[in-house]
Structure formats: structure tokens, C-alpha cells
């Protein structure tokens, strides 16, 4: 049987993208935060989880299509790596070091929540790791855990954080998170020449290929970020991908996340959802406490530090930072470090506990 996330059914793909776009536009009309991403995620996720088959077609989005669009975010982030921003990285070491305390604390709290909720030890441990979905599920499988349950727990951690964080910012700031397109970099207003388009395409493709060959974490993001940042810092290119392309990317990413609920056991999903929601809230409360403490030390706004510690996906948290025009390099760097440290700590814990 073919994997539904790799095979291509043009009609099913078109229906999924149309449903996601409709959800994104509806969310935009309702003035929801990062509307295109959340709207497409919710509509396709609900449809996939409920087993709805429009015109007899499944909700699906091939993983390779998502991979084709994610570098757009990485290339856009690279445009924020100006010399002035890079000069401030040396002042961020206290918050980067704080990840060594935040991550095991969040992991321990999540583990306790899942164990108290009646989940097995292995699944609770790897399901509670605050980063590195693919890597931690693989480690959990090696330890004999239920891959389906760990995947659902990790995926819900990512999804719920993506939903909660922009809503929190909307409540705290009194305004909508995210522009109509979801990108607010000043460089987005600069027209791109054909040569610059070619350079940005090369940054995305070669960046991903190089990062994957070097086994860098989250290669689909980190490679394009590094290549784009180098090109911008060297003055070879000045603009970034246009706003409309980032908007399309939000819809594709949202549909890709939502489609992964297809075929998930509903009883397992319902049980895991409640526990994952409690874990997500607990992790965000811990992140908020760290943000209040670290903000004056690193001279960054507390919301930026909070966003840097929120355990969502690298691409999605970066999209929120793009929309907020909020310390983009600071946020991205911390999330890359979070993924590396989370997976490393999970490997160490695996050796000690199992």
C-alpha cells in the first residue's frame, strides 16, 4: 500500500488545497491570528480526523510538496541576518544557556502529565520531548514504544502550540497577529531581479541538500537559512520571497499538518488530545516565566523571549515571528538550539532510563 503522504492524486490534492485556502480566507475574514496557516490547518485537520472524503477523495498533501515550500520560510528568515543583528548575537548567551534548564524542566513536567494520565512509560517519555518530532519518535520506536501514540502526542504538542501562541499574543496585544500575507520583513517590499530570484532558489535547494548531507537538525529550514543569510550578509541579494508566496506557503504548510490526522484512531486521538493540551499549557506557562526572567538580561522584549521558548515547530514559530516583526534571528536561533538540545537530551535519557 502506498504512503498517502508521498503518493500524488491530483484531484485529492486540489480539493485539499482548495479546502485549506477556503479555511484560511474564512479565518482571515474572522480576523484570526496567522489566518492562512491556522485556517487551513483547522479545516483540513477536522476533515481528515472525521474521515470526510469530499467527492470520494481523501484529505492528503504529499510530504514532498510541503518540503518544496518550507525553504521559502528559511530563505525569508535569511533576509533578516543583517550585520547589525548579527552583532547582537553575543548578548544572547544567557537565554541560550537557559534552554539547558527549560528543556529538561518542560520534559519532566510533560512526562509527569502523561504518566498521571495513564500512558505507558516509554510513550510518556518520548511523547513529552519538547522538540524534534521525527527524531524523538524514531528513538521511542527503538525503545519499543507505540509509534502511533508517540507521533500523535508529538504532533499535538506542535499543533496546539501553533494555535495557542498567536491567540495569546492577540489577547495580550489587543491586535491581530500576522499580516494578510503573514510576512512583514522590510526586505519583502524590495523588487527582485531575475538574478536575485535565481540566487534565492539556489539558497533554498542547495541549502537543504547541504544541510541534509551534513545531518543538520531541521535541515529543510536550517540549510536555506544559512545560505540565504550568507547571501544577504555578503550583499549579493537584498530582497526576500514576495508576500504572496509566503501566504501560499502558509496554506501548504497548514494543509500538510492537517492532512496528517487522516486515519488516526479517534479514541486514541481524543485521549491524547486532552493530555497534550494540558502539557502544551504547562510548557507555555514555563516559557512565560522564563521570558519574564530573561527579558531584561538579554535586552529583548518578553514576548520575543516567550516566542523563542514556545515548543512549536521551527517553520511555524518563525512564521509568527515574521508576522510580528519580532526579533526574527533571535527567535529562529533559539528554536534551532531547542531542537538540537531536545534530541540530544532524549538520547541521553534513553541510555539512562531504557
UniProtKB/TrEMBL annotation:
UniProt organism field: Paragemmobacter straminiformis
Record flagged with keyword Transmembrane: yes
One GO biological process term: regulation of gene expression
InterPro entries: AbrB_fam
Source superkingdom: Bacteria
Pfam annotation, one family: AbrB
Any single Gene Ontology cellular-component annotation: membrane
Keywords: Membrane, Transmembrane, Transmembrane helix
Transmembrane annotation, as ranges: 36-55, 67-90, 96-114, 158-177, 183-209, 216-237, 243-263, 275-298, 318-341
Protein name per UniProt: AbrB family transcriptional regulator
